[in-house]
Amino acid sequence: MTVFAVEYVYDAESAAVRDEHRPAHRAWTAELAEQGTLLASGPYADGSGALLLVRAADESELNAILKQDPFAVAQGLASIRTSAWNPVIGLLAAHAS
After folding, report:
1. Are strands 49-56 and 79-85 parallel, antiparallel or unpaired?
2. pLDDT (tens place) for every residue of the chain, 97 residues total
3. What is the C-alpha R_g of the chain?
4. Would you list the DSSP string of the chain?
5. 3 state DSSP class of 78
6. Distance in angstroms (rounded) separating the CA atoms of residues 31 and 16
7. d(CA 94, CA 74)
8. How far apart are the C-alpha atoms of 31 and 33, rounded to whole Å?
9. Is the CB of residue 70 less than 8 Å from the CB of residue 28?
């Protein structure tokens, strides 16, 4: 499995959409964490977006996972940036491929 750093970018125009769908989004992320798919997630302190660390076999699987996010379904994200990430030191190093 590959670890992907997923960066969500928010914009002011979609704040109400995110507020409405946040409970479903948090339930979705909690389920992914329980499955071991989501290693960590949380919003940036300045409110500009969020970072998710996701385990997936490849980008195709990652994209399929991200399409299920209630924020994405409701079009509450300005953009998404993904990068394969290789944690080598620290608590997440055991998850490196």
Report:
1. unpaired
2. 899 999 999 998 999 999 999 999 999 999 999 999 999 999 999 999 999 999 999 999 999 999 999 999 999 999 999 999 999 999 888 877 6
3. 13
4. -EEEEEEEE--GGGHHHHHHHHHHHHHHHHHHHHHTSEEEEEE-TTSSEEEEEEEESSHHHHHHHHTT-HHHHTT--SEEEEEEE---SSTTGGG--
5. coil
6. 24
7. 34
8. 5
9. yes
Task: Give the torsion through C-alpha atoms of 2, 35, 20, 78, to 10 deg.
Answer: 0
Bridge partners (DSSP) of residue 82 are 6
Mode of pairing for the β-strands spanning 49-56 and 38-43: antiparallel
Sign of CA dihedral 76, 10, 4, 63: positive
